[in-house]
């Protein structure tokens, strides 16, 4: 079977426009603010510029003002957007909004799409996804879900604590995972709810100090106490929350990989430019064997990550579950991106750890990705479990 990795001309052109937009418009803002978006006004300004450049919302369907790209096409565009820490938010494809747009398009009712999806895809509002809980609640093990949703007259009452709720500061609404049947530790029994930030039962608490700072709206604690919502706040069907989560989490893990791959390329470009001009021990740094090995290893990690991402995207685009492929891509890319940025810092010497370039910021931003969206260890466990299961099934035939 022939394998063609080339993108359609329209996708290639969009990726090229995105690359130009990021370099000419976004990177100057990023460098002026150490990679951290300074304000809501700056977000709006960048997104207006992206709209004018014709690169806004590549993931959303044309019905909601986007380009309607499938997963494989997103890989090319998202990587170019990720060349800057602020590129994804400029295109409205940053976490968690990008994943929420994807899920709402797939699951929400027409009324919910009009109320929540349309303004989110347009960049008029931001959102958050409230699933992770403080220990012993849901984290790597979603079955530990402790937040509850109890039937009351006319709707539901949500009670529980969440944390690491990315983007909650300033979000217009939250998608909340709550247990509707069973107890913590039981499989299943979760339901997703749409909760407006103005709901008096939802309280956004403290910002959790973290290594990374570029995800706009921070990582926050959120409490739900006697939080009342109507029946029409249920997203999808009752007790099907975990199934719907897979609609979001698989693609969202891959789009994280795409964006961080852009940063890996940026770090490599910074390091190679420095090594090509830096004179040391009578020759260029780039002509020394140890430096060449790091440069080559970075190229290998970037190319391998891209190939694994595309393979997983292809599986999702053809309707396959792709759980193993996504876990492989996520685990490898998260660790490979870290290696690339770390080598870039090393190649750049004192300059690499200084504030004169953003490599130190990149290093802090990419390290948590080995934990976010499932730690590498959890994905390895999942890959091994599926592999052993497949082996046993083959032996039983």
From TrEMBL:
Cofactor(s) required for function per UniProt: FAD
Residues of the Acyl-CoA oxidase/dehydrogenase middle domain: 128-209
Domain Acyl-CoA dehydrogenase/oxidase C-terminal stretches: 239-386
PROSITE patterns, alphabetized: ACYL_COA_DH_2
Keywords, ordered alphabetically: FAD, Flavoprotein, Oxidoreductase
Subunit details: Homodimer.
Family affiliation: Belongs to the acyl-CoA dehydrogenase family.
Acyl-CoA dehydrogenase/oxidase N-terminal domain sequence ranges: 12-124
Species of origin: Pseudonocardia spirodelae
Name of the molecule in the record: Acyl-CoA dehydrogenase family protein
């Amino acid at each position: 079977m022939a394998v063609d990795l080339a993108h359609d001309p329209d996708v290639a052109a969009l990726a090229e426009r995105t690359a130009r937009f990021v370099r000419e418009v976004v990177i100057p803002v990023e460098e002026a603010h150490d990679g951290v978006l300074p304000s809501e006004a700056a977000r709006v300004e960048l997104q207006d510029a992206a709209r004018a450049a014709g690169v806004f919302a590549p993931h959303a369907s044309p019905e909601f003002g986007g380009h309607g790209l499938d997963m494989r096409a997103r890989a090319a565009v998202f990587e170019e957007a990720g060349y800057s820490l602020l590129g994804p938010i400029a295109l409205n494809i940053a976490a968690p909004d990008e994943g929420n747009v994807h899920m709402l398009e797939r699951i929400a009712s027409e009324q919910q799409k009009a109320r929540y999806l349309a303004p989110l895809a347009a960049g008029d509002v931001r959102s958050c996804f409230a699933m992770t809980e403080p220990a012993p609640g849901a984290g790597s093990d979603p079955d530990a879900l402790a937040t509850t949703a109890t039937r009351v007259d006319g709707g539901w009452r949500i009670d529980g604590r969440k944390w690491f709720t990315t983007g909650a500061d300033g979000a217009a609404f939250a998608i909340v995972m709550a247990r509707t049947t069973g107890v913590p530790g039981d499989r299943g029994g979760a339901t997703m709810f749409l909760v407006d930030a103005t709901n008096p039962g939802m309280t956004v608490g403290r910002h959790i100090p973290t290594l990374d700072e570029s995800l706009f709206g921070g990582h926050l604690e959120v409490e739900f106490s006697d939080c009342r919502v109507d029946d029409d706040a249920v997203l999808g069907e009752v007790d099907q929350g975990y199934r719907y989560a897979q609609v979001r989490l698989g693609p969202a893990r891959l789009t994280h990989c795409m964006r961080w791959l852009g940063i890996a390329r940026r770090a490599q470009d910074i390091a190679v430019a420095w090594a090509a001009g830096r004179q040391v021990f009578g020759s260029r740094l780039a002509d020394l064997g140890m430096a060449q090995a790091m440069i080559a290893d970075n190229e290998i990690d970037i190319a391998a990550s891209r190939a694994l991402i595309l393979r997983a995207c292809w599986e999702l685009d053809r309707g396959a579950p792709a759980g193993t492929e996504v876990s492989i891509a996520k685990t490898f890319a998260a660790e490979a991106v870290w290696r690339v940025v770390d080598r870039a810092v090393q190649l750049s010497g004192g300059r690499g750890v200084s504030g004169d370039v953003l490599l130190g910021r990149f290093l802090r931003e990419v390290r948590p990705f080995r934990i976010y969206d499932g730690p590498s260890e959890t994905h390895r466990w999942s890959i091994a479990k599926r592999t052993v299961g497949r082996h046993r099934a083959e032996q039983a035939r």
